[in-house]
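Good morning,

Both structures are done.
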Amino acid sequence: MSLNSTPSGERLHLAFFGRRNAGKSSVVNAVTGQKLAIVSDVLGTTTDPVSKAMELLPLGPVVIIDTPGIDDEGELGTLRVKKSYQVLNKTDVAILVIDAAVGMTEQDKALLNKIQNKNIPYIVAYNKTDLHNVCPDGENEICVSAKSGENINELKELIAKQSKGLESNQKIISDKLNVGDIVVLVVPVDKAAPKGRLILPQQQTIRDILDAHASAVVTQDTELAATLAALKEPPKMVITDSQAFAQVSKITPETITLTSFSILFANYKGNLRLAVEGVTALDKLKDGDTVLISEGCTHHRQCGDIGTVKLPALIQKHTGKELRFEWTSGTEFPENLSAYSLIIHCGGCMLSEREMKYRLKCAEDESVPITNYGTAIAYMNGILKRSLAPFPEIQTIIP
């Protein structure tokens, strides 16, 4: 995906599921008009979920996901089936592909039940109708032939229908701005910063500010004081990278609203209230407790990495306790959270809204406190109430 493309976390995720050799990958290729998936008569050709970001009419920017067969066998097969089921956590519309000659099996019914329980819009596509002219005609069902192209356009129209209304109207910050406002963005450039570009939350926030017809002024923490002094009028707010929170708070006058990218994304992608409620668990940690630090993206760890170095050090200092830390990244997230006393998650810019909310719901269901990077760092620096100024309705729950 190019740097100028819609981020994958902002795209509708369309996932294709089915038994081995139901023609799942062939349907994917027919729908996209591309050879995205390997097609073979050999059972289990798709061994891992395969994702592709693309433009798909009439939907627009989407992520297409082809999954391993849900009837795979053996030790490796069991792991592949587990991977398929995990894809549900980020699926906006599920397409269950059935071999028309075989009909719906017990495995198909079990998966469909999970899809329905998760309230995921879905379609059941009976494939190979060029060979088998028996087709159910129930709700959300369609008969297709990946080989002949029969009803493939109709399938795409049905996917578009099921996708209607799924787009989020949530804003990062533009709903808090007026035309002509100035927002200062503090972007430290350290070893972890990607060479030649800004990280995704920074890019998206700049675009959102421009959508409000406001102006974004980007500076580093080392130049913040000079930047504020150079402005003819104070900015509407200052938004900082969380790791510079303490320094930026000292430089930014109390009269100027201050928050962080991470806090904005906790509200944009997840549940800011839950993150604020969970942050006080930091004060209840005991020696030997385990803290899970989870990131939605995968990147090369640098010396001084915020997730593996800076954040654990700050937590140890704040609590004065001997704690254990575990880390997850990318699509990995534990199914059982009972071993953790606290979860600290990144802003989730690389995750879809559905997947981020799934993780939050898992923690909530197991009564494990969960917060995020920016909220935790602001709390431990004693500036959380100030950093929540853009969200006065959340400020009231801070103890």
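Second structure follows.
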Amino acid sequence: MTAKAFVLIETAVGRNKEVVATLSQLKGVKSVDTVTGPYDIIAVIEGENLNDIGDLVTGKIHPIAGITRTVTCLTIGAA
């Protein structure tokens, strides 16, 4: 079963386009959207299991220059 999560991302001022471009190239990132509201970007990610989701967020997404904060929301059922 595939694990899926929504990653809510805050970025530094002026860094949205750069962060979106970097996120879009990562394996496991299914979509990236710039949004309005308290967050700047929402990314949908998938992995084989929850460990893959955790590794992607902590190892690949957190180090991206321009990201100041993330909140990861795991899905809990079929859509």
